[in-house]
Specification:
Elements lengths: L5 H9 L5 E6 L4 E6 L2 E6 H10 L5 E6 L3 E5 L3 H11 L12 H13 L5 E5 L14 H16 L22 E5 L7 H5 L4 E6 L4 H11 L11 H14 L5 H14 L6 H10 L9 H8 L1 H6 L6 H15 L16 E6 L6 H13 L6 E4 L9 H5 L13 H8 L4 E5 L6 H13 L1 E3 L5 E3 L4 E6 L4 E3 L5 E3 L7 H19 L3 H7 L3 E3 L5 H23 L2 E3 L2 H11 L6 H23 L7 E9 L5 E5 L1
Parallel strand pairs: 1-7, 1-8, 4-6, 6-7, 9-14, 9-17, 10-11, 11-14, 18-19
Antiparallel strand pairs: 2-3, 4-5, 12-13, 15-16, 19-20
Helix pairs in contact: 4-5, 7-8, 7-9, 8-10, 9-10, 11-13, 17-19, 18-19, 20-22
Length: about 625
């Protein structure tokens, strides 16, 4: 396998026909470079020099806007030769040079016949402030560089044997290093056939595999391990470093060495590097103990939804056991869990997300919530995910990416997902598959340690041919009917209305349909809410509220007359039929010196004004 970067191979191939090269992209990375009979990781300059040296290049001149010009490599014979050929007056190894002076250097490099050489212009992105709004000096400099690219000729060094490969005519290359191709004036490369724009990309799997072999010796225990263990390490390191540079991989190895992370736990080292958190909460014993009793804990707060509870606990256990995406060849970067809660309003979808957060993190407010109705317009994606580079506010990042970078171990709730603009939903493909998202600043947020929860009311109502909405399911329907119709509506929405079946495929079988609140479940919810009211009164006024059974039964009947709005509807009824009139009664009642207050009657007059009587 040829381990040289593609842009290096392109320069070697194009030297006979191209005089200048713009190299953009991953230019600050390390690259696989031959060293004696092995490979090593080296900076771009060293990698480029090794390739040009094989083409009989004697030295490089390196320029950057801060220091000026210097010969490379920093060896006495190279410095002497470069200084003589280019009349260099070095101060501490460099020569300060203006743009006008650099123009003269470029012309001398292009015409140099005594020795093959090249010019590397580093930090070329910082030569000018605005590449498409050049001042007179900057414009003259780039026009001179463009003219030189067309006027230069391939060089055969003096005294070279033309019968040998080193005697073939090649250009002395001028190489511009930029972060992005657009950092150069747009016309510069377009108007010259002698300038090639090359991209230094992130390393592919095979390159990362070679780098992992080199870096393995930095991990504790690697040298003494068995071949099978090393092969497992290689796969884990390559999978967990997808989307990272070789410099990042080197930093991961260094982090593991300093923290004493074994090569067998390379995933933990990669996670520590990506997220800045040393310890993985998913591997803590206390979390495993919590999840062992998760079903009881959840059912105490979310009533009457056994299917949702079971599915949620399964995903929690799968996350703790590290089996998320285990069926795929590479599933290590996917979110820890994905849940799609669908069903009627007020049945516990959001409450279950809060309960899950409380269970894992000890605080139900620790979850990250996004109301997707706020992102119904396409331009709202800039707020959620960050504006594209160059647009106003791109350097602020997105609300989602910023939040996940701050709290990588979290529950992320996307409420009423169907109300988001379809173009925003496209971004979830990358999150669900790759577990990461990059904002306009170029910063990457990793979702591999998060649980994602989507909620939706799809399928509860449907639209007829006249655009009118009608009820698709009702509280009287059996759960099997509700589940079937809601699932069908969700599939129709993603497949036919959005034409995005791939989003549904990424969610998989993690759709959980919530049932309507039944009468027995409604009573449980009512009792829980009533208990909260009684506790609040005791906390505020140090008084115990007493409700005789007939009063409670009457209030219960009022609160569950219509279960179509679920638990939220019960709460609304309790507020209007009891809490509001109770507040009026307590306001007028003398509580001083009392330990308890009893409700003796709840009545409604002809104006439907409810009155609570206390003794």
């Amino acid at each position: 396998m040829n381990t040289s970067p593609r842009w290096i191979r392109d320069i070697e191939r194009l030297l006979p026909i191209r005089s200048q090269y713009i190299v953009a992209g991953n230019i600050r990375d390390s690259f696989l470079t031959p060293f004696q009979s092995n490979l090593t990781l080296a900076p771009l300059t060293r990698c480029l020099w090794t390739a040009l040296q094989a083409q009989d290049c004697k030295f490089l001149l390196i320029y950057n806007p801060v220091e000026g010009l210097r010969p490379y490599p920093n060896e006495p014979e190279v410095i002497e030769l470069a200084s003589r050929l280019f009349s260099l007056k070095l101060q501490d190894g460099v020569m300060p040079t203006s743009l006008e002076g650099l123009t003269g250097i470029m012309e001398k490099v292009a015409a140099q016949r005594e020795a093959r050489c090249g010019l590397l212009i580093d930090f070329a992105s910082r030569l000018v402030r605005q590449p498409d709004h050049l001042d007179a000096t900057e414009h003259r400099f780039f026009v001179a560089a463009e003219r030189l690219s067309l006027a230069a000729n391939p060089i055969v060094p003096r005294g070279a044997d033309i019968a040998t490969p080193h005697g073939k005519a090649r250009f002395n290359p001028i190489i511009w290093l930029v972060n992005r191709a657009q950092d150069m004036p747009s016309w510069f490369a377009l108007d010259s056939a002698r300038i090639s724009t090359l991209t230094a990309t992130l390393p592919d799997f095979e390159i990362r595999q070679e780098a992992a072999l080199i870096l393995g010796v930095r991990f504790p225990g690697f040298t003494a391990s068995e071949p099978a263990q090393r092969d497992k390490y290689l796969k884990q390191f390559c999978d967990s470093s997808e989307g990272l540079s070789l410099s990042d991989m080197s930093d991961i190895a260094q982090l593991a060495d300093r923290q004493g992370i074994s090569f067998q736990d390379v995933d933990d080292a990669a996670q520590s590097f990506k997220m800045g958190i040393v310890e993985n909460p998913w591997k803590k014993d206390y979390l495993r103990a919590k999840i062992a009793d998760a079903a009881t804990f959840i059912e105490d707060r979310v009533k009457g939804q056994p299917q949702a509870v079971t599915k949620t606990v399964d995903i929690l256990m799968r996350s703790v056991m590290g089996l998320t995406g285990a069926h795929a060849r590479s599933g290590g970067n996917r979110p820890r869990g994905v849940l799609f809660f669908a069903g009627p309003t007020g049945v516990g979808k959001t409450e279950l997300a809060k309960t899950l957060t409380q269970l894992i993190f000890g605080n139900e407010r620790a979850y990250i919530r996004f109301d997707m109705s706020e992102f119904a317009e396409e331009h709202a994606s800039a707020r959620l995910l960050g504006a594209p580079p160059g647009y106003i506010g791109y350097d602020a990042g997105g609300e989602l990416t910023n939040a996940v970078r701050e709290k990588p171990f979290s529950v992320v709730l996307f409420d009423e997902i169907e109300k988001a603009h379809p173009r925003i939903l496209d971004k979830f493909l990358q999150i669900l598959e790759d577990g990461r998202l990059t904002d306009g600043r170029g910063d990457t947020a990793y979702f591999s340690e998060a649980i994602l929860i989507f909620t939706s009311n799809l399928g509860i109502t449907v639209e007829d041919e006249h655009g009118r909405r009608s009820q698709n399911v009702s509280p009287d329907d059996h759960y099997d009917v509700v589940e079937s119709r809601v699932r069908s509506a969700i599939q129709d929405y993603f497949k036919f209305r959005l034409s995005r079946p791939e989003i549904l495929n990424r969610i998989g079988d993690n759709i959980v349909v919530f049932n309507f609140i039944s009468a027995p479940v409604a009573e449980l919810i009512f009792d829980s809410m009533l208990k909260n009211v009684i506790n609040r009164i005791h906390e505020e006024h140090k008084v115990t509220l007493q409700l005789p059974d007939p009063i409670r039964a009457k209030l219960l009947e009022l609160c569950r007359r219509d279960l179509g709005n679920g638990g939220r509807g019960i709460g609304n009824q309790l507020e209007s039929a009891f809490i509001n009139p109770l507040s009026r009664a307590l306001f007028k009642f003398t509580l001083e010196g009392r330990e308890s207050v009893t409700v003796t009657d709840i009545s409604e007059d002809e104006n439907r004004i409810v009155t609570v009587t206390l003794v």
